[in-house]
Amino acid sequence: SGAPAGTLRLGPDAAGVAEAAALLRAGALVAFPTETVYGLGADAGEPAAVAGIYAAKERPRFNPLIAHLPDLAAARREGAFGPAALRLAEAFWPGPLTLVVPAAEGGRICDLARAGLPSVALRVPAGGLAHALLAATGRPVAAPSANRSGRVSPTQAAHVLGDLDGRIAAILDGGPCPVGVESTIVACLAGGPALLRPGGVAREAIEAVLGGRLAALATAPEAPVAPGLLASHYAPRARVRLDAEAVAPGEAVLLFGAARPAGIEAAGACLDLSPAGDAVEAAANLFSHLRRLDASGAATIAVVPIPPAGLGEAIRDRLQRAAAPRPGGPAPP
Ligand code: TXA
Ligand code: MG
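Structure tokens predicted for Threonylcarbamoyl-AMP synthase:
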């Protein structure tokens, strides 16, 4: 056993998909693109394969993973869909929405992938390549984001290889991910739908389909704690400073829209998430811009205020995690 010597690069054609599916069916780890971010996939029914995900990512705890499926029919073999879950699946699948529902009896997803919970997180991603891979694999595929634990999520194949080259069997390269932030997670358990993580589907769109407000995690005591949602996460090396109205000399700056903070002339590297102030475009650029500003070597990345509407909620959530105190103390200089 041990890490594979080299990671196989597979192209986005029929041969690449067939090879990736064969590797997944054999219990290997394969990174693949979804419309949100690249996932690190393994057969969700094979505990040894799922354990390999935690090892490759150096994920310290067994957080529950999202299982990816080609369509709603396959998802219904793994989870029990009540009326609200069904309405959301029909409205947003395939797409960047994950539903946490009671695990179905006789489902294939193993305990380790569910971290022992009686519920299961299911997602039908959009995007032809992900769909082709899931259909060819014919099994639920567990996949967290394909980064080392605590690092920024990958939206390009090069990001994945930077973190995981040599630790995973293969990567299916489908180019950049169009949405750029992870899926929205909604729990549909007892007590009504609750938002566990903002993401690629805006809260407003979900509430429009449900005809009512989504409960927040804090006000949904029946909702399970999603461990991956709490600690510092998505952390670049640099310190991250939010809602900056002014920047210090040498600070890297993450801009949004046309506004320019005071002191910008003396700043270091500057990138704009969306010069037009469009939250959808900003989400698509978020993680790659963070990586590029981090690579500039600046000690701090100052982020201008970002409005919370639409995908702004998910962008602000990821930036707050990037700015949170690190488990190992402050980021190294
Ligand atoms: O867009 C995405 O969702 C990406 C792509 C690859 O699909 N995947 C992703 O997975 O972001 P990951 O593992 O980074 O995030 C999964 C989140 C974690 O915060 C986990 O705690 C939560 O889903 N989760 C999984 N199963 C759960 C469950 N049964 N109850 C509550 N939370 C759950
Ligand atoms: Mg992640």
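The chain has a mean pLDDT of 91.
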